[in-house]
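Internal tracking record. Fields below are filled automatically when a chain is submitted to the structure queue. Please do not edit lines marked as system-generated. If the sequence contains nonstandard residues, flag them in the REMARKS field before resubmitting.
Queue: standard
Priority: normal
Entity type: single polypeptide chain
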Amino acid sequence: SDGKVSVAVDFVEIVTSDESSFVDVAKDAYYYDAVMWAVKQGITNGITADTFRPNSSCTRAQMVTFLWRAVGSPKVTGSNVFTDIKTDNYYYDAVLWAVEQGITKGITATTFAPNTTVNRAQTVTFLYRANSSPASEGSSFADVPAGAYYADAVVWAKNEGITAGLGGNVFSPKSDCTRGQIVTFLHRNAQ
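SYSTEM-GENERATED OUTPUT FOLLOWS
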C-alpha cells in the first residue's frame, strides 16, 4: 500500500419542503394541510416516524394536550384535583391548564379519565370553551339536540367553518373523534 486513503463522498438531498413523510397521509386527504400544520407547530407528531394514523381515535389527555400546545403551552398555576393525573404524565400541565381555562371539569370532581376516547361532541366543546364560548346562533345538524351540552359548541363550530359535519346534515356527536378530524378542527380554528 502506498499509504493513501480513499474517501468516497455521497451527497444526500435534504428535503426542506412541507412534503409529508407520513405514508398514511395522502396529499389529497382533507386533513393533509392540518396534519402538516400541527406537526410544524409542535402540536403533535406522528405515531411513528412515518405514520400519523389519521383514522385513529384520540384520548381526552391527547385532546387537551393538542389544545394546550396550540396556544403555546402556557405555564399553569392551579393545583391538581384529579386522582388519575400524576405529575409525571406528559399531559399533566395541559389538563391543569384546561381546568384553569374552564375547558373541562373532568368526568367527576376527582377524575379526569385521561385514557377515555374523546368523541366529536367533546372535541368541539373543548375547542369552543378554549375560544371563551362565544355566542352563536343558527342551525345545527339533525342529530344535535337543542338542549345537549354540546349544542352551542356545534353551532359555533359550524358557523366558523370548523366543521361541516359528516354529510347528510349529520354531525355524529357520539362518534370517536379521529386524529385527522381533531387536527383539522384545530387548524381551521387557527385560521
